[in-house]
Design brief:
Layout: E1 35-39, H1 44-55, E2 60-65, H2 68-81, E3 86-91, H3 97-111, E4 116-119, H4 135-169, E5 176-180, H5 193-213, E6 220-225, H6 250-259, E7 270-273, H7 278-283, H8 285-290
Parallel strand pairs: 1-2, 1-4, 2-3, 4-5, 5-6, 6-7
Bound molecules: NADP nicotinamide-adenine-dinucleotide phosphate (NAP).
NADP nicotinamide-adenine-dinucleotide phosphate (NAP) binds next to α1.
Length: about 300
C-alpha cells in the first residue's frame, strides 16, 4: 500500500462521539426547524446520521434506500430519538435519476423544503486487480458512488439554495451538502481501483459544487471520510483491513450534524475526516484557507 501522507492532517484522532459533536448537548437544537434528506439511510452510517439529526432537533428527516423493512427500522429509531422529528422515506435506487428526483420532490412537498442533503449511499465490491475485475461490478461502484451522489446534488440543489437564503435571513446557516468520501480517496491500495477512484472523484465533485454554487446559491459542500466502521460495506474490504474498522457510527453522524450547524462553513469545498477533532481542526482554519489545503491537486513541484 502506498499513501500520500502530506495530504492528511496530524490531529488528535477521535473514534466515538465526544462533547463538541454531540447532537444531544453541544449541538442540541442546531438542526431546529430543519429538513434533512439522507440517501442510504437503511443501516450503518446513514441510519446513525438520521438519528443524530433527530437528536439535534431536526423538524424532519427524509430517508431513502432500497430496503423498505430497514427504512422502517430507521424510522422507528428516529421516532425514539425525538418524537417531534417527522420522518418519511422513499424506497429507491440512487442510480435512477427519476427515482431520486421524485423522492426529493416528495420530501419538499411534505416538509416545505430541504436544508441539508447527505449523499451517503455507497457500494464497495470485493477487491480485485483491474485486469481481473468484473466490468459490471467495477462500473457499478461508480454508478452508486458517483452517479448516485450526482443525482442527489442535482435535485436537492435548488432547495438547498433556498435554504441558504432563508436561513441567512434568520441569522442562521443553511444549504449544506455532505458527500460521503473515504480516506481511500487519496490511497493506492491494490485491488481497490473502482472504490478509491470513485471516492477521489467525490472529493473533486465537492470542489466543483463549491465553484458552481458558492456565491450565488450559498451552498456549503463537504467531502466527508466517516472513519473506519464495521458496516456491511466496510466488511466487504479484505479481512486484513478489518482491524481498521474501529470507529462508532455515532462519530460521523455527530460530525455531519456539526458540518450542518454552521460551525464548519469556513471549510466548504474541502475533504474532512470525522476522525479529526473539530476543536483542533477549527484552530487550523487560517492555515488551511491560506494554503488551500484538503483539496485534490496534482503534485508537480520538483
Ligand atoms: N464503513 C466505513 O468504514 C466507511 C469508510 C469510508 C467511507 N464509507 C462510506 O460511507 C457511506 C455509508 O456506508 P456504510 O459503511 O454505512 O455502509 P452500509 O452500512 O453498507 O450502508 C450502505 C447504505 O447505502 C444504501 N445503498 C447501497 N446501494 C444503494 C443503491 N444502489 N441505491 C440506494 N441506496 C443504496 C444501502 O441501503 P440498501 O441496501 O437498502 O439500498 C445502505 O443504506 C458509503 O458512501 C461508504 O462508501 C464508509
Amino acid at each position: 500500500m502506498s499513501s500520500i501522507q502530506s495530504q492528511f492532517l496530524d490531529l488528535a484522532v477521535r473514534h466515538s462521539r465526544y462533547p463538541a459533536i454531540d447532537p444531544r448537548s453541544a449541538l442540541k437544537d442546531s438542526a431546529r426547524d430543519k429538513v434533512i434528506f439522507i440517501t442510504g439511510a437503511s443501516r450503518g452510517i446513514g441510519q446513525a446520521t438520521a438519528v443524530a439529526f433527530a437528536e439535534a432537533g431536526a423538524r424532519a428527516v427524509y430517508l431513502t434506500a432500497r430496503s423498505e423493512d430497514a427504512l422502517e427500522a430507521t424510522r422507528a429509531l428516529v421516532g425514539r430519538a425525538n418524537p417531534e422529528t417527522q420522518c418519511a422515506y422513499s424506497v429507491c435506487d440512487v442510480t435512477s435519476a427519476a427515482a431520486i428526483e421524485a423522492a426529493v420532490a416528495d420530501c419538499a412537498a411534505r416538509f416545505g423544503g430541504i436544508d441539508a442533503a447527505d449523499a451517503n449511499a455507497g457500494y464497495l465490491s470485493p477487491w480485485t486487480k483491474i485486469g481481473e475485475s468484473d466490468p459490471e461490478s467495477w462500473w457499478r461502484t461508480w454508478e452508486v458512488n458517483v452517479r448516485g451522489a450526482y443525482h442527489l446534488i442535482r435535485f436537492t440543489l435548488p432547495h438547498l439554495a433556498q435554504s441558504a437564503k432563508r436561513r441567512t435571513a434568520e441569522g442562521r446557516s443553511g444549504g449544506h451538502l455532505i458527500l460521503l468520501s473515504s480516506v481511500g480517496a487519496q490511497l493506492l491500495m491494490p485491488g481497490a481501483s473502482d472504490y478509491q477512484t470513485s471516492k477521489h472523484a467525490i472529493n473533486r465533485l465537492c470542489e466543483f459544487v463549491q465553484v458552481d454554487h458558492d456565491d450565488d446559491d450559498g451552498i456549503k459542500c463537504f467531502a466527508l471520510h466517516p472513519g473506519g466502521i464495521s458496516t456491511e460495506l466496510g466488511r466487504n474490504m479484505p479481512q486484513a483491513l478489518h482491524a481498521h474498522l474501529v470507529d462508532d457510527p455515532e462519530l460521523p453522524a455527530g460530525f455531519a450534524v456539526w458540518l450542518c450547524s454552521g460551525k464548519a462553513d469556513w471549510a466548504k469545498g474541502r475533504y474532512l475526516s470525522a476522525n479529526w477533532d473539530v476543536g483542533e481542526l477549527t484552530a487550523l482554519t487560517d492555515r488551511i484557507l491560506q494554503n488551500d489545503l484538503l483539496v485534490n491537486r496534482l503534485r508537480a513541484q520538483v
